[in-house]
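Contributing new complexes? Match this layout with uridine-diphosphate-N-acetylglucosamine.
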Amino acid sequence: MSQPHPRIVVVLAAGEGKRMKSALPKVLHPLLGRTLLGHVLTAAAPLRADRTVVVVGHGADQVRAHLADVAPETTPVLQARQLGTGHAVRIALEAVPDAAGTVVVINGDVPLLRPETVADLVGAHEEAGAAATVLAAEVPDPTGLGRIVRDSAGRLERIVEERDATVGERAVREINAGIYAFDVVRLRDALGKLSTDNDQGEEYLTDVFGLFASAGEPVAVHVATDHTETLGCNDRVELAGLRRLLRDRVNEDWMRTGVSLLDPETTWIDVTVTLERDAVVDQNTQLKGASVVGAGALVGPDVTLEDTVVGAGATVVRSHAVGAEVGPRASVGPYAYLRPAARLAEKAKVGTFVEVKNSEIGAGSKVPHLTYVGDATIGEQSNIGAATVFVNYDGVNKHRTVIGSHARTGADNMFVAPVEVGDGAYTAAGSVIDKDVPPGALGVARARQRNIEGWVEMRRGGTAAAEAARRATEGASGQESGARGGEAIHGGAEPVRAAAGEVDTATE
Ligand code: UD1
Ligand code: MG
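Output block (do not edit by hand):
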């Protein structure tokens, strides 16, 4: 047996949204982390409806697929031809033949609607025992919207579409928001009586109000306190306007919970993001998807995080991260790119012009400069020299590189995976490491340098270089020649000299 008094929500999402001029159905356009339709469903969710029916039509397959993804509990119902909002609701109600009590109808294109406003509308409707209640709002510019027409006593008489309105009615700034509560039994009856005698030749849901009012059925108007909640979206200019409004609302909410936004106008936070206390977000920053910014972390300026978790006290500056994890007090950037499954443990560092993908960087380990880390595991407290490439791809398969803990790899290394560098091992600058380096060993893989004395004088005599060389050899007699200040890494009997600023630079 079906439930005696199911509460039904109907969302109208069959329209094309012609003015969006898009291959994507209007209700699937994104707005700070959810589609327009997703926002509407979220606003209706706290009603805990027994059934939520979504009327689909234009791009039905795309809309159905999206519903299966974000709201699998909803029931899509096909309106093959878009013959008007009244027609759409009539079809929706065919899917719930036993429904009784209150049905809430929401246009699919009002994404700023707050759950409390819908709840208040339903509360007012049920308290008044009305047959129909419309959410209305006083707006600065009512162009294109349905107007609330009241009688001299202020009672709702009917709702008139702008294109069917008289000049006097067009002057009304109280509009229909496209959100309603109805007694479903009486609604079903009235929908059977709708005419298509209007400018668009459609069945208008809004005509139900006139029918009820003239039949003496109680109809009510619930006025929204914040008119921006009722704004619809008909083209991309309006969509951008809604995005700004939602941005301001989201940013204000975060600031009130103890997050600092240094430039709220250039900070775009999806409604799905979480920020913890004392997080600081600097300007030009976008936080998207399931991203989390931990307590006291500093993100920005110029950062985009998508589905990325930033731990407490971490720093991310001028960087782009997707599907990454940044551990507590870790540091990223400026100019880093973290790709999916880049995982930085506590106090790890990924510095400037460094890209990391599908790799773990252990606690306190550093990858400071100009490096690609792909498919690698790096232990704790290790240091990767500047300009290193983790060569992970043989053209067919990807392979892993493992670097142990307390390892120090030289600048300009290639790690040709699969390869392993043991705990406490070193590698020399400029090495192509394609064999494992045991713990504590120095891996050297580069051609030995030889100097051909006097070559410039012999082959480039008379040039400025030759002249400079002559001055230097004359003036520097007695001074030591060769690299100075370099760090000597001893590999057995012979010292291997690394040029200054290579291995050394990588230690900071
Ligand atoms: C509608 C209201 C108008 C109100 C405005 C608020 C009617 C007749 N008019 O006008 O009073 O001020 O919303 O934004 O209802 N849809 C269907 N099937 C259809 C037609 C529409 O599912 O056959 C859906 C659309 O996808 C959309 C919603 O219903 O989500 C509203 O349709 P839209 O064409 O945007 O109506 P408006 O002209 O905005
Ligand atoms: Mg509309």
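Reviewers usually confirm one structural detail per submission. For this one: The chain has ten helices and 41 strands.
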